């Protein structure tokens, strides 16, 4: 069976589960490296939501459009995780 990707997945296809699992396994084994830390941070920062949030924070002429995209992603994730009733509120 194929390993499930994070939900919702970004358009870039970033999988944050793999580096998160590797980090936890290495913490348990007592052998965490800076590479483990960097891999998780990079995976999260490369996600579409993180990139959009950074672009919104930076401001500029496209900030509102990017904020709307970010809000849509957040609400879609909320609907996936909490059910469609959450979006209707």
Please give the structural blueprint:
Blueprint: H1 17-29, H2 34-45, H3 48-58, H4 63-82, H5 84-88
Kindly state the number of beta strands: 0
The unreliable regions are 1-13
Q: Can you give the mean pLDDT?
A: 83
User: Cα distance, first to last residue?
Assistant: 37 Å
Short note summarizing the structure:
The chain has 89 residues and is mostly helical. 69% of the residues lie in helices and 0% in strands.
Give an account of the 3D structure.
By secondary structure, the chain is mainly α. It folds into 2 domains: 32 residues, no CATH class; 41 residues. Helices cover 69% and strands 0% of the residues. It is built from 5 helices and no strands. The N terminus is likely disordered.
Main attributes of the structure:
89 residues; mainly alpha; 5 helices; 69% helix; elongated; disordered N terminus
């Amino acid at each position: 069976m194929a390993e499930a990707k994070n939900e919702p997945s970004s358009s870039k296809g970033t999988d944050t589960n793999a580096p998160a699992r590797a980090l936890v396994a290495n913490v348990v084994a007592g052998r965490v490296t800076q590479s483990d830390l960097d891999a998780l941070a990079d995976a999260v920062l490369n996600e579409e939501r993180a990139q959009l949030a950074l672009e919104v924070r930076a401001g500029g002429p496209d900030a509102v459009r990017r904020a709307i995209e970010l809000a849509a992603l957040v609400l879609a994730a909320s609907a996936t995780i909490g059910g469609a009733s959450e979006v209707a509120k």
